[in-house]
Write a structure and sequence with these properties.
Elements lengths: L6 H8 L8 E5 L6 E5 H6 L32 H11 L4 H11 L3 H10 L1 E2 L6 H13 L7 E5 L6 E4 L5 E5 H6 L2 H16 L3 H17 L2 H32 L2 H5 L1
Parallel strand pairs: 4-6
Antiparallel strand pairs: 1-2, 3-4, 5-6
């Protein structure tokens, strides 16, 4: 496994001139005193940022949960705007109702069980611990099923609406450090936390339907397909933010 970039090197790459690095005013969560904090310090060494009045830490510790945080707190504006536009398209509500009626997840779960390793206390418990670390920081009370696949390609995915699952490929474990894998897990959990899965799966179904039936199906669903695909890319920005909140490591998320 490779290590993440050292914080000083990362700081110089993002803010080459330390004197021009931005700063922000942060209100102490303990005494409400306002403190001016350099952004590089807040991003790369938050545990060292203390209130000038009471001396207590300004930010949460590495493993402290963001209690009762809503996904809207870190939702990217492009994600929100794209989804709102999608919901106004003619025919989208009908397509969504049809999809919900057809939704069946048992076959997908069986496929994962047949082709992947279901991680738990007996198999790859270290992966489960990384997933748990990410979900505790995001204050997600449930643990989705975690599967490990064998692939030379670095990839991970989340699927399922009623019974969500996270799938990671073995290449991720070969190339990434534990904190980087945790960032990947948190990214996938962000999709679940923000309720992205229903719309993502609908996008895949419509694309597959257009490829199979062609012609009229493509014409009828093309506006919805285009809007769904645009939203899907914007939704990744929200999940990237979840990756940072769940890993608490900017270098891991940028790497």
């Amino acid at each position: 496994m490779t290590a993440t970039a050292p914080a000083p090197d990362l700081a110089r790459s993002i803010w080459p001139d330390p004197e021009k690095a931005p700063s922000r005013v942060i209100e102490c969560r303990h005494c409400a005193r306002k403190n001016r904090v350099a952004v590089p310090d807040a991003a790369l060494a938050p545990e060292k940022c203390e209130c000038g009045a009471c001396g207590k830490p300004l930010f949460l510790g590495p493993d402290e949960p963001l209690e009762r945080i809503s996904s809207t707190a870190y939702e990217h504006p492009l994600d929100r705007a794209s989804l709102e536009l999608l919901k106004t398209l003619p025919g989208f509500a009908a397509a969504l109702r049809w999809f919900l009626a057809q939704l069946g997840e048992r076959s997908t779960r069986h496929l994962f069980l047949a082709n992947h390793v279901l991680c738990g206390e007996d198999q790859f418990p270290e992966l489960v611990r990384l997933l748990d670390a990410a979900r505790r920081r995001l204050d997600i009370p449930y643990r989705p099923a975690l599967y490990l696949g064998e692939s030379p390609f670095m990839n991970a995915l989340t699927t399922g609406v009623e019974e969500p699952s996270v799938v990671v490929q073995s290449a991720l474990l070969d190339q990434l450090s534990d904190v980087e894998v945790t960032a990947v897990m948190a990214h996938e959990l962000g999709h679940l936390h923000a309720d992205h899965m229903l719309y993502q799966i609908l996008a895949h179904v419509l694309l597959a339907g257009g490829a199979v039936f062609g012609g009229l199906a493509v014409i009828l669903t093309l506006p919805i397909q285009k809007a769904l695909l645009k939203w899907a890319r914007c939704a990744e920005l929200t999940s990237d933010r979840a990756g940072l909140l769940g890993s608490r490591d900017l270098g891991a998320c940028l790497g």
